[in-house]
Specification:
The structure is a homodimer. By secondary structure, chain A is mostly helical. Chain A has 2 domains: 52 residues, Orthogonal Bundle (Arc Repressor Mutant, subunit A), CATH 1.10.10; 142 residues, Tetracycline Repressor, domain 2 (Orthogonal Bundle), CATH 1.10.357.10. The relative contact order of chain A is 0.10. Helix content of chain A is 62%, strand content 0%. Chains A and B meet through α6, α7, α9, α10 and α11 of A and α6, α7, α9, α10 and α11 of B. The structure holds a DNA duplex.
Chain lengths: 214, 214
DNA sequence: GGCAACACTGTACAGTGTGCAATATCGAAC
DNA sequence: GTTCGATATTGCACACTGTACAGTGTTGCC
């Protein structure tokens, strides 16, 4: 194994790790591009193709970094299984909302990185400890992933750089015609808060209730 | 109102409706671009800016068209509130998976079109009929939207042009090391089916259970 | 008929990801 | 120690993308 100990040719000036790290740094402020990362590294764009097959590979690596940044250890500890899931979910939501376009990355490629697998394993453990069968635990795991990523992505689209408060206030100010949409008008004060962590926790809670009842 | 009955200047050769319609046609096969739609209409790309402020406006319009194509009337009728939600949700999922990149459109702009409002109103009615308060009905409505869009987007990323069967088979073939990820390995036969309608219905069912319990 | 508003075009710019051929650099074999 | 082949990096180029700006010609109104 690892027969390629030394190879001819010039030394590599970079590493895949380094590229992904620079992309993460660059991520505060703008969604990273091949050319942007290369510029930051003081290198021509093509150079990156020595380390990555294409842009999708960079995105996959970023996805896995983001999952790790949310701290999968939150899924461990002595708290109840629900608390642990909620804590990691909220942490991941925060991580995804901090960087513009972060949530959207999860939709360009399948999640098969090592951290994705780790998080999956731990979620399975939690649902199993809650009494679910292996099959149901798997389904519940995916349901939670879908909720966190879907929620974060939609909220990221609505925020678009603004703060949560600004968006809620802007939505509050919208006038709904009670003739056309009576129920929407009646519930609008709640609907205006769809992009808040309160809403996030409410729906996650409902989802976990439904999963636990299986 | 509508004081602009007639205006000077040449007749318009197109309409916003027409642009959105050709974009939808073009959508089978490739994700529509300003230049692509213009070419299909036999017109320079800039011409579209007479009718639309920017690409985001086109995407918003497409989102609303997709919501309508899923047939919001499925939310009406005599079936139980759960059946009606499940039927529309599955229909929307199918619509979004039929066109590549359709699901991703929902993440570029807020959903505030007329059909989005209509669907929201009808979901509120269903949850209200299920006994939820206006506030809880609003939260449950968003939870369902998040699930449908999140699930469709993740599945679209995994499918990437392939059929559901192909993806499931490819995932089944993956070998998970039971030493590293015992639970993942044990539940993998189910995990391989995450992108199926069966999984979609399972998690939607769980979510609705949790919402109804409020 | 002149005026002002308007639709549309030509051209252009600043981006994006990425393929290809040339160049420079190294390790290993002779 | 020289040659050879593998390799990293570059310059250049291509095919895209959205969209800004300055014409150019058509039209309704006074």
């Amino acid at each position: 194994m690892e027969e390629k100990t030394t190879r001819p040719g010039p030394k590599r000036s970079l590493s895949a790790e380094q590229i992904v790290t620079t992309a993460m740094d660059l991520f505060d402020g703008e969604t990273p591009s091949i050319r942007g990362v290369a510029a930051r590294l003081g290198v021509r764009p093509n150079t990156l193709y020595t380390y990555l097959p294409d842009r999708a590979a960079l995105e996959r690596a970023l996805v896995d970094r983001l999952l790790a940044e949310a701290d999968p250890d939150l899924l461990l500890g002595r708290r109840s299984w629900r608390r642990r899931i909620e804590d990691y979910a909220c942490s991941l939501r925060t991580v995804l909302l901090r960087r513009r376009g972060a949530a959207a990355l999860f939709h360009s490629a399948p999640m098969d990185g090592p951290n994705a697998m780790l998080v999956g394993e731990r979620l399975l453990a939690l649902f199993t400890s809650a009494g679910l069968s292996p099959s149901d635990a798997s389904r519940a795991t995916y349901a939670v992933i879908v909720h966190v990523l879907g929620s974060a992505t939609l909220t990221a689209a609505d925020l678009d750089g603004h703060t949560e408060e600004e968006v809620v206030a802007a939505r509050q100010a919208v006038q709904i015609d009670p003739e056309l949409l009576p129920l929407t008008a009646a519930a609008w004060s709640t609907t205006a808060t769809w992009n808040t962590e309160t809403q996030f926790r409410w729906s996650l809670h409902a989802l976990l209730d439904g999963c636990a009842a299986r």
